[in-house]
Amino acid sequence: MRSVLLILLFTIPLICGAEDRPQVLGFGVKSCRDYSETFREWKKGEGKYIEQYLRYRSWFAGLVTGLSLATGVDVIKGVELNGAMRRVEVYCGEHPEEDFFNASMRLIRALSGLS
């Protein structure tokens, strides 16, 4: 069962075409461009961006928690949450057209060794 769930979680973005995208809710559907702006302004202490950054962080923490529980593997391999968020921001800065979900999954795949 765990293997089937893992396979589905990691292959759905690859299998689905542009017209049949998997359902991603919340901050996962936001663009990397939006996350990069939020991260940049959060670091400056801008009020509305602090709240928005915390929402991204909570969404990412939920994704990591769900995948870790489903797989029995620490999918970010002991990396602190803030460090993981920074690594997603670096990726997003280089790929502004990507969405936050796929940027997050790229990091999770790289850290967990899961494919």
The sequence of SSEs as H and E is HHHHH
- Structurally, the number of domains stands at 1
**What portion of residues is helical?**
55-70%
What's the total number of strands? 0
- Please indicate the percent range of residues in DSSP E strands (runs of 2 or more): under 5%
**How would a crystallographer describe the biggest sheet?**
none
Structural class: mainly alpha
Report how far apart the termini are: 16 Å
- The average pLDDT value, as a whole number, equals 86
Number of helices: 5
Shape: globular
Overview features:
115 residues; mainly alpha; 0% strand; single chain
How would you characterize the overall build of this protein?
The chain is mainly α. The protein is 69% helix and 0% strand. Helix 2 (32-44) crosses helix 3, helix 2 packs across helix 4 and helix 4 crosses helix 5 (100-112). The mean pLDDT is 86.
Blueprint (SSEs and pairs):
Blueprint: H1 2-15, H2 32-44, H3 47-71, H4 81-94, H5 100-112
Helix pairs in contact: 2-3, 2-4, 4-5
What is shown here, in short?
The protein is 69% helix and 0% strand.
